[in-house]
Design a protein that fits this description.
The complex is a heterodimer of chains A (295) and B (378). Chain A has 295 residues and is mainly α. Chain A has a single domain (2-281), classed as ABC transporter involved in vitamin B12 uptake, BtuC, CATH 1.10.3470. Chain A has helices spanning 2-32, 39-56, 61-84, 92-114, 141-162, 164-174, 176-181, 186-211, 221-234, 239-259, 267-281, and strands at 119-120, 130-133, 136-139, 214-215. In chain A, strand 2 and strand 3 (136-139) form a beta hairpin. In chain A, helix 1 (2-32) crosses helix 9, helix 1 packs antiparallel against helix 10 and helix 2 crosses helix 8. The longest helix of chain A is centred in the N-terminal third of the chain and has 31 residues, at 2-32. The termini of chain A are far apart. Chain B is mainly alpha-helical and 378 residues long. Chain B has a domain at 52-281. Helix content of chain B is 73%, strand content 1%. Chain B contains 18 helices and 2 strands. Chain B has helices at 2-12, 15-39, 46-71, 79-94, 97-103, 111-114, 120-146, 151-171, 173-176, 191-210, 212-222, 224-229, 234-260, 270-283, 288-304, 306-309, 325-340, 353-371, and strands spanning 312-313, 318-319. In chain B, helix 4 (79-94) packs parallel to helix 8 (151-171). The longest helix of chain B has 27 residues, at 120-146. In chain B, 40% of the residues are buried. The chains are: A mainly alpha (295), B mainly alpha (378). The interface between A and B is large, with 45 and 41 residues.
């Protein structure tokens, strides 16, 4: 039974991490109708930033985290300005290719700048230590991550639902052209979206590093793809959906391996199978709105 | 009798066509001579031959991706997965029995494949065809669910299937030797094989694009709704294009296995798909010529730029040796093409002698007009 609860805690942690990164995908998709393939690589860069700040430059972790968040947000906004803004009016597939190009560039750049040698993610506080509750060993991380995730999502909901910037985001994602006509500053709104998405990805990356402390240039790819899948499960474009999708996917991955241990080698395939099933039977996800093509 | 018929055929052509026929025959003869001398090791060493082989294999793979992405407009990112199926099929069929025993030391190979060895050129042909057919069949199975999707959803679903194939191959220890992969694959694919397959698929694509199927593919790319209202069955044509693309990728993967000699599941990561996508975008989506020229340019440039990885001096600063520098150069190049030159080198157009001669004869005029005052503007 102890093992069962440990797995539940594990699933909750992974699920919360997926949720944090999935929000970035869903927000960008909501506004630009673009799968931001580079999002997973922004996540990877955030891990490297933390490594350099804490392990190489000996900055105390509470300051280092702030610096990492700022650097990641700047990177996210820079990518949008350099690679997506100039071709915003081009066919959508060009935007997709551009995001693949950015992903390819960041991975190759990371290989050159940080070398392909795997690095150890620094420990932050006592997050990796275990605490014992009723005979069950559980990492502190498993308590901190879901709470942190919920707090950030609440803050995000306030931002999106109650502020003017959030209203602009909702307007742009509903109807790009009309929002522009109504005087919404499109450039600033899109930049804000990328900033928020990158910020959450950076938080996710730091917590991910506590769970899986190995960094290499391709570390963001699998989490990136899975988090996109989480966003699709929840219904793309919907922030609450991304949270639920992330939790469902994380829990599913851990529990399937727990119930059928022989499948552990195929763990990375579950998410893709889930994606294909969702796209076939529930294309708009759990909370998505139906979109019809206009001719 | 026959000779006279051919003579009559040539005489009946108009001068332009006769000229093009002559130029084509000259270039084909030159290419064949070039192939012969390179393959015999007279023109270049084994390194050069290997690079040219890779060029031709990449050209085949680019054609495969261009068929579904550039000509049919269905953005599929499954090429690496299809290649993996083709490469493993070919490798397992042409691997000698004693090497199989040596490689599969962690877990013995499945009995029904253990004693199979298709030797020689004929065996290789059979293996490539089997690889193509098997990959096409898998593309057919995958196509049923994914081809109902559009645009970026299709991209992510095909990428997902490609990764699933890789995960399965990593875990099937007794069939694929798991993550250790397969080595000592016989190097049967010489230049005749690689260039022959490339020529075959090039001609195939050129002919295909002139049939009603090819026109249907292009119409689906340009406007799905209009194509459907003209009575084109969207699903059937997408499926046909996807299956053909899978077949070509499978054969390309098989050639790749024999050219590189060793394959592991990691080799077929999605990064490989990105590499091929780079060539498709650079050459021009929907251009056969672009695919071939792009594949040769990029592959040769990648080899030529190896000096970047070895460190170099800029006069005042010395850049230390860093592996992967040239890949950064290529990523930047890809980004520049996407942002400023979206149509690529050929941008959907094709090479022809008429075009070459027209642009060559127009060249002196254009150069001259550059020097004339204000001539360039007009």
């Amino acid at each position: 039974m102890a093992l069962f609860w440990q797995n539940i805690a594990n699933g909750l942690t992974i699920g919360s991490l997926y949720a944090l990164v999935a929000i970035g995908y869903t927000m960008v998709y909501g506004i630009l109708r673009l799968i931001n393939f580079a999002h997973g690589d922004i996540f990877m860069m955030a891990m490297y930033f933390s490594f350099f700040a804490i392990t190489v430059f000996y900055i105390p972790w509470y300051i280092a985290i702030l610096l990492v968040l700022v650097a990641t947000v700047l990177l996210g906004v820079l990518i949008e300005k350099a690679a997506y803004a100039p071709i915003r009016s081009a066919p959508r597939i060009s935007l997709l290719i551009s995001s693949i190009g950015v992903s390819y560039l960041l991975e190759n750049l990371a290989t050159v700048v940080f070398t392909g040698v795997p690095r150890q993610f620094p420990k932050i506080g006592t997050l990796q230590d275990n605490i014992v509750i009723g005979g069950i060993n559980i990492q502190q991380l498993s308590f901190v991550t879901p709470v942190l995730m919920l707090l950030l999502v609440l803050a995000l909901m306030v931002l999106v639902d109650k502020t003017k910037a959030g209203m602009a985001m909702r307007a742009v994602s509903k109807d790009f052209e009309t929002a522009k006509l109504m005087g919404v500053n499109i450039n600033r709104t899109i930049a804000t979206t990328f900033a928020v998405g990158s910020l959450l990805a950076a938080v996710g990356a730091i917590m991910w590093g506590q769970k899986y402390p190995q960094i290499q240039p391709y570390v963001g790819v699998m989490p990136g793809l899975k988090c996109f899948i989480a966003a699709v499960i929840g219904g793309i474009g919907n922030i609450r959906g991304a949270v639920v999708g992330g939790l469902v996917l994380g829990m599913m991955e851990i529990m399937i391996v727990y119930i059928v241990p022989t499948l552990s080698g195929y763990k990375d395939a579950f998410a893709f199978i889930a994606l294909i099933l969702i796209l076939l039977f529930l294309p708009t996800g759990l909370f998505g709105e139906k979109i019809t093509d206009k001719v | 009798m026959e000779k006279r018929q051919i003579k009559g055929f040539v005489a009946n052509l108009n001068p332009k066509k006769r000229r093009n026929l002559l130029l084509s025959s000259i270039s084909i003869t030159a290419l064949l001579l070039f192939l012969y001398f390179s393959n015999e090791g007279i023109l270049m060493g084994s390194y050069g031959v290997r690079v040219l082989n890779l060029c031709a294999v990449y050209a085949v793979l680019t054609l495969s991706m261009n068929l579904i992405n550039g000509f049919t407009g269905q953005f599929s990112l499954g090429t690496a997965g299809f290649m993996a199926v083709g490469a493993y099929t070919t490798a397992l069929l042409i691997l000698p029995v004693e090497i199989k025993e040596k490689i599969f030391y962690l877990e013995p190979m499945v009995p029904w494949l253990k004693d199979v060895h298709w030797a020689g050129n004929l065996g290789f042909l059979g293996a490539l065809l089997t690889a193509g057919v098997l990959t096409a069949f898998i593309a057919f199975l995958i196509g049923f669910p994914v081809l109902r999707l559009k645009g970026d959803y299709l991209a992510i679903a095909t990428l997902g299937f490609s990764e699933i194939i890789r995960v399965i191959f990593t875990n099937m220890q007794n069939l694929t030797n798991g993550s250790t992969g397969i080595k000592s694959i016989p190097p049967i694919a010489n230049m005749w094989w690689t260039f022959g397959v490339m020529a075959f698929f090039t001609i195939f694509m050129v002919r295909l694009m002139k049939t009603s199927y090819g026109r249907a593919f292009k119409s689906i790319r340009d406007d799905e709704v209009a194509a459907e209202s003209m009575g084109i069955s969207l699903f059937r044509h997408k499926m046909l294009s996807f299956v053909l693309s899978g077949f070509i990728a499978g054969v390309g993967g098989g050639l790749m296995a024999s050219v590189v000699g060793a394959i592991t599941p990691i080799f077929f990561r999605f990064i490989l798909t990105y590499d091929i996508l780079l060539i498709v975008v650079l050459g021009g989506m929907g251009s056969i010529t672009g695919s071939i020229v792009g594949a040769f340019l990029i592959t040769i440039a990648k080899e030529w730029l190896r000096w970047l990885d070895g460190g170099f001096s800029l006069g005042f600063v010395r850049i230390p040796a860093i592996a992967g520098m040239r890949m950064v150069v290529f990523s930047v190049l890809l980004m520049l093409v996407i942002l400023f030159y979206r149509r690529g080198l050929f941008g959907g157009r094709e090479f022809s002698f008429d075009w070459l001669i027209n642009s060559l004869s127009a060249l002196p005029k254009r150069v001259f007009s550059l020097f004339k005052k204000g001539g360039a503007a007009k």
